[in-house]
Amino acid sequence: MKFKNKISYITLTLLLFSCSESKWAEETIIDPTIKENAIELSAEVQEKSLDFIHAKNMNVYNDSILIILNKPNDETKFVEFYNLNTNKKIADYIGRGNANNEMLMCISHLDGNKYIVEGFAKKKIAIINLDSVISNPNYKIPELLSYSMSSQFITPYGDDDYIF
Fold this sequence. Notes:
Elements: H1 2-18, H2 32-36, E1 55-61, E2 65-70, E3 79-83, E4 88-93, E5 95-96, E6 102-103, E7 107-111, E8 114-119, E9 124-129, H3 130-135, E10 145-146, E11 155-157, E12 161-163
């Protein structure tokens, strides 16, 4: 008997929900004066353009600093910083090669005010303090750190400390 009661309750519940009325939202009509008063916008033309032939990845920091990660080549360093307001290069770091402060191939990501560049071929990592790059034209990046994991697990902590 209990099984028949359960089936009856389920059937009754389904019938009640299927008979409920759905309310549709009213159609929104835009006032015709909006179209009449619309102004055509023209594209902003930038007279001076920066040319980034070797760029692999770009990030913008604080709406005015362009950070470029370049493809490996002998003409440019891996990381370049540009001021978007003046279209001038601020600094460039990390050359291509086998020396201590060089990398062969790299990937990067932005983590707050730190730009983390991982040289996965040599298992080296550079953590660049962006505020220091902007404020100090003589800023030098710290010595590259050796690591044994992917940089997504390295978190900057404070100004000069890192959690691996």
